[in-house]
Amino acid sequence: MTPEPWNAPYATDPVEADVSLPGSKSMTNRALVLGALAQGRSRLQRPLRSRDTTLMVAALRALGARIDDTRVDDSDDETWTVDGADWTTGPTALEVGNAGTVLRFVPPLAGLASGRVGFDGDPAARKRPVGPLLGALRDLGVDIEDGGRGALPFTVVGAGGVRGGEVSLDASLSSQLVSAPLLAGAAYERGVVLRHIGERPVPNTPHLAMTVAMLRDRGVQAETDGRTWAVRPGPISAVDGMIEPDLSSAAPFLAAAVVTKGLVRVANWPERTTQPGGLLPGLLEQFGAWVRRDGDDMVISGPATVTGADLDLRDAGELTPVLAAIAAVADSPSRLLGIEYLRGHETDRLAALARELSALGAVVTELEDGLQIRPKRLHGGVFATYDDHRLAMAGAVVGLVVPGIRLDDVATTGKTFPGFATMWTEAVTGRKAVH
Question: Which residues, including other chains, have CB under 8 Å from residue 434's CB and lie 6 or more apart?
Fold first, then answer.
């Protein structure tokens, strides 16, 4: 059933809002994987409960992990417990949805099981890059049947353990292709030494730093020189940890301050982080925003005029849709570069942004590795989201300053931000949303 288009709120005044974000998807799913591999019980405080994380929970349970994610109330203070997996010995089938972390992080674990583990997902997930990972896993000793497609659907034939060792792959399409074997590597007989052999660097290096840091926090010996990563075999300790707020999900709220001359405060912004979203304040300054910390909060004030910016987003590709929305309402052209790999995300984000922003009146040109955006007077219309949570957030930002913007499927934000539409409406209007 096709959903009714959602009328994006139009801001008649500068947006002033205090925002508390849900937990980081990237950290939640990494913590779940490491908890399944650990000896003992791990506790995750303030994890993200969303489609991507519930798919990860279901996949790990199917492989034998014991995870209690029972919701006691609607508080953000909930805690999930994860007990190390008693790996399954029978066939099972896993659904990855359109979650890149489930698609890539779970197959390396499936080799530790003793049975056939099938993987499939949404139609869009069948187009997402996974072939280099499957090839690397084969080199490490994992038996995989994929009919030569290098894509979903495929089956991992678990043998109760994985040899591991040294492997090379081209990870220029996604940092997850590196993180996936590293997360499981300590459980392999020889560990993992992985070399990136692509001509372009691995994108989103903050996520790789996150993977290495979380491994080290659990007692794993993990090293890198930026092109080679090594994880030694050994036990993974269970830990209790707080999941940081999802800083990439702060992007539309902070953008609201930028495009409306407003002021938005985001609570509990970490002083140091491995999240790509931690780059947001500096990127927004280049559009003219004022940035300051106030205790534990990040505060963004919008400029009198939004200026265009040339940005290298190789390490922050997931911020591109919202930054493109800001660029489309600036007073001068922008270029967003280093993001050719976004063509293989939830959708081809470069083509989608060019198409949707151009349809509203902007002049957007696809470049080999990004977008050139020339602002023009924009008009209302339906903004297609392509089942992509970040596209929906971008459309919501445009709707603040362009009346008559409607999103064809705002519910797709449930992938990483359940309740986004309600929280957005309340934040940008200052009024409780009508349910």
Answer: none
